[in-house]
Amino acid sequence: MGVITTAVIAIAGVILGWITIEMACKPCLEKGREAIDQNLNPDYDPDDDIRSPLNANPTEQSDSTSATAIKIV
């Protein structure tokens, strides 16, 4: 009977430890799992994550963006 009790206590300890780690490291684990899911997904394209181009209108220039030399004294 002592062996069964010890086994049950050990299993309960492992389960509670696992739950504690899951709760304590939740943000890190979620990012890691998301990265693994993206890596294993053959339809995932990293270029789709780009939200906006650096220069949305390359042909349109304004006076405020033109290059001007400024002398600092």
From TrEMBL:
Residues 37-73 are annotated as: Disordered. It comes from the Eukaryota. Residues 54-73 have a biased composition (Polar residues). PANTHER family: OUTER ENVELOPE MEMBRANE PROTEIN 7 (PTHR33982:SF1), OUTER ENVELOPE MEMBRANE PROTEIN 7-RELATED (PTHR33982). This is Outer envelope membrane protein 7.
